[in-house]
Amino acid sequence: MRLLFEIGMEELPARFLVQTLKEMKENLEGKLKDKRIKFEDIKTFGTPRRLVVLVEGLAEKQEDLDILNMGPAKHVAFGENGEISRAGLGFAKSQGVEATDLEIIETPKGEYISVRKFMKGEETKTLVPELLKELVLEINFQRSMRWGVKKLKFARPIQWFLALLDSDVVEFEIEGIKSGRASRGHRFFGENFEVATIDEYFEKIRANNVIIDIEERKNLIKKLIKENCESSNEHVLIDEDLLKEVTNLVEYPYPIVGTFNSDFLEVPQDVLIISMQVHQRYFPILDSEGKLLPKFVVVRNGIENSDEVRKGNEKVLSARLADARFFYHEDLKKSLVENVEKLKNVVFQKDLGTIYNKIERAQKVADYLVDAIGMEERKENVLRTLLLAKADLVSNMIGEKEFTKLQGFMGADYAIRSGEDELVAKGIEEHYYPRYQGDVLPKGIEGIVAGICDRLDTLCGCFGVGIIPSGSKDPFALRRSALGIVNIILDANLNISLEALVEKALDTLEETGVLKRDKAEVKKEIMEFFKQRALNVFTDMGYAKDVVSAVVDKNYNNLVDTLLRIKAVDEFTKMDDFNNLVALMKRVGNISKGFEGDVVNAELLKEDVEKELFEKSNEVAHNAEIKLSEKDYIGYLNVILSTEDVINRYFESIMVMDKDEAIKNNRLSQLNYISGIFNKIVNLALIEEKK
User: Fold this and answer.
1) Cα separation of 71 and 582, whole Å?
2) Of 25, 523, 554, 613, which is the most buried if we count CB atoms within 10 A?
3) What is the domain extent for residue 519?
4) Burial degree of 656 (CB within 10 A; 0-12, 13-18, 19+)
5) Are residues 221 and 321 in the same domain?
6) Exposure pattern of 513-531 as b/e (b: 16+ CB <10 Å)?
7) What is the mean pLDDT of residues 203-213?
8) Residues 629, 389: Cα–Cα separation, whole Å
9) Residue 284's closest CA among 267, 298, 268?
């Protein structure tokens, strides 16, 4: 059998469509499984006016239920006189049966009481109506509404339900809205219609100019744009996120090319592009060199061209671009640095002060960081970058909330036009990078240092006043800030101490009277916070989780060095000797686990193999330190592996847990000393042996 269910409604916001269909599918799958109704596949389709679910290969009835529920052992359920005990009666009651219905069955563990239940499966058609009602009522939206006198909550008013089980209507009703076999075509280019079968629905919905398959609509938009909106020396800039949004705004797409006055091109093209994409959902058109042309593409919800639609959108865009041009020219009437004073009146957070306060703190951390990475000659530029980094936030362009996506970019443009150094201007833009996962990273020292110090002040400041992310709550995007810092440090190959950097930021907060909590406790929490982000970053690079955890567990203060150690250990895990190393370490560690002390008394070494191991371990400790100082981590791992033969001989002939307490403790100290050498760069106990 096949089941088709369509929820028809007023236009649904584009951002709700895909997620709602996903949740409907998952919910329906769960319900069918709970009801023991087998099916082959569930497909979903959707437009702004409809949510559609199609179930293929639906079983005609539930599977019969034949189960055996085990109870307590027979001797527990029945007393010595054969009368049922309280335990036996309790089990019978819990199963909803009389004591006489209990069975005694033989198991490998003895005799147990049990209850056998058999339930014949009901026909699917009797269960589906209630199932579909539940499906509708359980749909959750970020924002829902009621309409008329109905109590039903939904994102938009529901207009109809179409529900067919093969060719039969699945009859149900929700607050006066009855299911049936009627649907509606395109709002402007279709008609209302009824269908006798599921196949007829798919034929008629298309005939009424509705493409219900989301992927098909998206591909059609790209195809029509390429065929009708591009020429040999120009191309349409198609942002993937915008394409997804536009796809979910229409039932049948028709791209139309519009134009705007070329005088607007005096405004930076990123401003114009953002205005088209974000505010109007238009696709900009660029020439072969990537320069914006005074043209755009609007995707109409229709099946044909329309001069009225084109002219209407041109008029709306012209007004929007006029605003952008006005803001831009107003901003250019004064230099960027003149905006800095205004930041003294813009509160970042009530306990952390103004954005200007934040800039001053970040500059102090930057002063330390520039010295730490040996870039003193760029210090003046870095400090200037931080001074101006947030100045565009109070510009007309950004401050009016029209073009917030352009923060940083506008600051860079205004900086250049104000006569600032090009490196400073680039740093202003780059200090926001990365803005999201997978975004570009800053490349100039100005952007790198400013980006780290700005984020670090936010992170340490929030932790310092008790604003700590929990669950899904992270109002200041601290997880993203920490991830940004980790990624910037690694990409820029900065050999710096993360702990020292955090300490400097906390000292600055303390000096300015902002820190509200114990500094040591805050530092500990922040370092643990960074540890979790570092684990994620290194794992996302493709390294095995156990390797990453084992290395980070040992030390992650210098992230660049941590990555070198991860690479070395990861490479070593692929070698034939790897399992020998892990087995060796675990054998040593397990015996001495929990024992404190690693000072060996040579006079208590009685056996030759003990003395040999003592000499070998001292030699290995010396050689290991050399390899570590050279950052030759593969060499270090090979050095400690060279102890394999003597350690194996040691365990073959030495009883560590000697009756003589002094000898036993000395042997445990010797194993602890060796274990300490083994675990200089990685906690080998956390790594799994490779099969």
Assistant:
1) 46
2) 613
3) 340-539
4) middle
5) yes
6) ebbeeeeeebbeebeebbe
7) 98
8) 39
9) 298
The answer as to whether 260 is a domain residue is yes
Domain ends where: 75, 100, 119?
119
Element holding 483 (H helix, E strand):
helix 478-492
148 and 83 in a single domain? The answer is: no
End-to-end CA distance of the chain: 47
468 and 595, same domain (yes or no): no
Q: 681: which 2 tokens?
A: 């760069």
CA-based max dimension of the chain: 103
Same domain membership, residue 115 and residue 54: no
What is the number of domains present in the chain? Answer: 5
How do residues 630-639 score in pLDDT, each as one tens digit?
999 999 988 9
Taking residues 552-579, report their average pLDDT. 91
Clarify whether residues 525 and 423 are in a common domain. yes
Element (H, E) at 500: helix 498-511
Assess if residue 149 is contained within a domain.
yes
540 token code pair: 């996302």
Reading the block at residue 18, the tokens are 């895909």
For 62, the token pair is: 């539930």
User: Structure tokens of 52?
Assistant: 């559609």
Q: Is 255 found in the same domain as 234?
A: yes
Q: DSSP of 343-388, one letter per residue?
A: GGGSEEETTTEEHHHHHHHHHHHHHHHHHHTT-GGGHHHHHHHHHH
Outline where DSSP puts E strands in 62-172. 65-73, 103-107, 110-119, 158-165, 168-169
pTM of structure = 0.78
Buried b (16+ CB within 10 A) or exposed e, 604-615: bbeeebbeebbe
∠ at Cα 40 (59, 139), nearest 5°? 90
User: Whose CA is closest to 446, among 373, 358, 500, 533?
Assistant: 373
In a domain, 531, yes or no: yes
551 within a domain of the structure (yes/no): no
Identify the band that residue 620 occupies on the pLDDT scale cut at 50, 70 and 90. Answer: very high
Alpha helices, DSSP H, located in 37-122:
74-77, 86-95
- Residue ranges in 173-306 assigned as alpha helix (H): 198-207, 214-228, 240-247, 269-274
Does residue 209 come out as left (phi exceeding 0), alpha (psi in the -120 to 50 range) or beta?
A: left
- Whether the CA torsion 74, 79, 81, 84 is positive or negative: it is negative
Give the three-state DSSP class for 616. Answer: helix
